[in-house]
From TrEMBL:
InterPro entries: Guanylate_kin-like_dom (IPR008144), P-loop_NTPase (IPR027417). One of its GO terms (molecular function) is CARD domain binding. One of its GO terms (cellular component) is cytoplasm. This is Guanylate kinase-like domain-containing protein. PROSITE patterns: GUANYLATE_KINASE_2. It comes from the Eukaryota.
Length: 222
């Protein structure tokens, strides 16, 4: 990080090791993206300390419904978590066409926040920016697949879609993660080997991220 002001930083990538010793001291400015299509000179981010409980969005989004169902069980989980059912009065929309025009109202999310609970959202990554524009800073948790075929995820969540669909969605969302105006948290495949361990890893991730600073690219929201 290179300091720009007291509350903003510029992301800087270190010089490639292969360039060392060549006499070049030029800095390479780089965003968090690994993909050439999304490279920009630099990205200014600002720390935001969120006092209220932050909503949670999961990636891959195909797992959201099953994960939310499991995280709301047993009953004591509801002391920390809640969810918002889809509504036809749309605030945020994640659908493939008008026949699936369901979303979640802003008021529903704010109501869960007012109860001092994390709102588990069945929303995709495109909704993150919309939430930020409303002054809501979600926790984005990405469950990294064990391999390109996503066998580990399919083993524990077999009803989340066909193999080809899951692979397509996962690949698309990995690209979207790198373009979010908010830093996300990754759950590595080595940290869990069964559904219960994954759920515990997710609970711990929510707890840690709630206490952490949210780094936001505010310029994109203006």
């Amino acid at each position: 990080f290179v300091k720009k002001t007291s509350d903003r930083v510029r992301l800087v990538k270190a010089v490639d090791p292969t360039c060392r010793g060549s006499g070049s001291s030029k800095q390479i400015f780089y965003t968090l993206s690994k993909h050439e299509d999304h490279l920009i000179p630099y990205s200014l981010v600002k720390p935001v300390k969120v006092q209220t409980k932050r909503p949670v969005i999961f990636s891959p989004s195909l797992l959201s419904r099953r994960l939310i169902e499991r995280l709301l069980q047993p009953a004591e989980s509801s002391l920390n978590f809640n969810t918002c059912p889809p509504d036809k009065r749309i605030f945020l929309l994640d659908s493939c066409g008008p026949e699936q025009a369901l979303g979640i109202r802003l008021e529903s999310i704010q109501d869960v926040i007012s109860q001092d609970r994390h709102c588990l959202l069945e929303l995709g990554l495109p909704s993150v920016e919309a939430l930020l524009r409303q002054g809501i800073y979600p926790i984005v948790i990405h469950i990294r697949p064990k391999n390109k075929k996503h066998k580990k995820l399919r083993k524990f969540f077999p009803r989340c879609g066909e193999d080809s669909i899951m692979e397509e969605v996962c690949q698309a969302e990995e690209l979207q993660l790198e373009t979010l105006p908010l830093l996300y948290y990754t759950v590595e495949p080595s940290t869990w080997s069964c559904t219960e361990e994954l759920l515990e890893a997710l609970r711990n991730a929510v707890h840690r991220q709630q206490g952490a600073v949210a780094w936001v690219e505010l310029d994109r929201l203006q």
